[in-house]
Amino acid sequence: MLSPNSQFSHDSQRPSEYPHESGIQSGERDTDSAHQTQVDNGGAAAERSQSWQVAPNLFTSFQYAWAGIVYAFSTQRNFRIHTAVGLIAITLCWLLHISTIEIAVICLTIGAVLVMEILNTALESLVDLTVGQTHHELAKIAKDCAAGAVLMAAMVALTIAVLIFAPPLWDNLHTYMA
């Protein structure tokens, strides 16, 4: 972990923000400053030169949080799949005239799955940073448990979706068949 008195005197000597993307192994230095940028909410690259420090203001905190969401969406296939399924569920709420309470339950469920996916991504990145390319049984357990938490959240979300969407879908099916 970098400290204020870090051995890196210039930003171009800092380790890459996302070393697994740039091919930099844990502990190596990245001299290409392009790897030290992340996407902000406008799509432009923004330096995060002192990532070891607390964000200086609330706006910067939101920029960092948004960068994490963008990172998850752009690099994690399952996050994109869960996002698409969530949008389909919201569309079904609108089409089937689901009650406000049921819409809230669907939104909370979608949010829980997406949050679990982001936490899984963060944990996997942290484990990769810690163990690098070596195999460690505890790293495997940590990654498997995090992935299992996402799977469990997705299964609960599917159960909730069936409970909420099945009755109106069944009623609409009977209406069109009659």
Describe the structure.
The chain is mainly alpha-helical and 178 residues long. Helix content is 64%, strand content 3%. The protein has five helices and two strands, in the order αββαααα. It has helices spanning 19-22, 58-75, 77-95, 100-131, 137-177, and strands at 37-39, 45-47. A two-stranded antiparallel ribbon has the order 1-2. β1 and β2 form a beta hairpin. α3 packs antiparallel against α4 (100-131) and α4 packs antiparallel against α5 (137-177). The N and C termini lie far apart (67 Å). Mean pLDDT is 80; it is low at 1-46.
In summary, what is this structure?
The chain has 178 residues and is mainly alpha-helical. The chain is built from 5 helices and 2 strands. Mean pLDDT is 80; it is low at 1-46.
Fraction of helical residues: 55-70%
Report strand %: under 5%
Mean pLDDT: 80
Helix vs. strand class? mainly alpha
| N-to-C span | 67 Å
> What is the overall number of helices?
5
Which key terms come to mind for this protein?
disordered N terminus; two-stranded antiparallel ribbon; 178 residues; mainly alpha
Topology:
Layout: H1 19-22, E1 37-39, E2 45-47, H2 58-75, H3 77-95, H4 100-131, H5 137-177
Antiparallel strand pairs: 1-2
Helix pairs in contact: 3-4, 4-5
